[in-house]
Write a structure and sequence with these properties.
- The chain is mainly alpha-helical.
- It has 2 domains: 70 residues, no CATH class; 134 residues, Tetracycline Repressor, domain 2, CATH 1.10.357.10.
- 78% of the residues lie in helices and 0% in strands.
- The protein is built from 9 helices and no strands.
- Helix 1 packs across helix 4 and helix 8 packs antiparallel against helix 9.
- The longest helix is centred in the N-terminal third of the chain and has 44 residues.
- It is elongated and about 65 Å long.
């Protein structure tokens, strides 16, 4: 009988341990999500925000944050990945068939709104992470834009006398310039997408469609 009770007792404890582990895992996931959500806000307020500042913004202890991210750079990297993953989910639903110019306008408008959300993180990342790492993170978004520009050139919507790589570079520079103008108060945030689209359309449109 003692052995039977011992076996039963051991059997009763296992679900408790599993439940405790599951709760701990859920708590850890919630804390990680809170930290990733709070980091852009902290960096928007202060690009030099410390780990302690970010932890306070997230409502967690500094050691809790370090339990998920060993360094500030690792946290910046993870936050940018999280933001770009969320952006990718949105951009993947932007219809890119039909008229290339209309699809380009829709993609630029959506991309601008998403850039606004993660710009503070991107600015810090460009300062603290390797350029190759940032390019790697943007591969999907760049491939989507590249494919649209290439189709537009084939179909005569976009000028074909300039390399697609140059059109991509101009697109990125224009969007970043708009973001800087918005930050400086020189461009209305609600009008920025229209300004970007109008600027790029006039630069990219084939002569017979300009």
């Amino acid at each position: 009988m003692p052995n039977g009770k011992g076996a039963a007792g051991a059997g009763e404890q296992k679900p408790v341990r599993r439940g405790k582990t599951a709760n701990q895992r859920a708590d850890a996931q919630r804390n990680r999500a809170k930290i990733l959500a709070a980091t852009p806000d902290a960096l928007r307020k202060d690009p030099d925000a410390s780990v302690a500042d970010i932890a306070a913004e997230a409502g967690v202890g500094r050691m809790t944050l370090y339990g998920h991210f060993k360094t500030r750079a690792e946290l910046i990297d993870a936050t940018l990945v999280d933001g770009l993953d969320g952006a990718e989910a949105v951009l993947a639903d932007v219809p890119l068939d039909g008229d290339p110019s209309e699809a380009f306008e829709a993609l630029i408008t959506s991309s601008w709104m998403l850039l606004e959300r993660i710009r503070a993180v991107l600015v810090v990342a460009q300062r603290e992470l390797q350029p190759a790492r940032i390019r790697e993170m943007h591969e999907k978004a760049e491939a989507r834009m590249r494919g649209l520009l290439e189709r537009g050139q084939r179909e005569g919507a976009f000028r074909a006398d300039l390399p697609v790589d140059w059109l991509l570079a101009v697109t990125h520079l224009t969007m970043n310039a708009a973001a800087e103008e918005v930050t400086a108060g020189q461009l209305d945030r609600d009008d920025a997408a229209r300004v970007i689209v109008t600027t790029l359309h006039s630069a990219f449109a084939a002569n017979d469609r300009a």
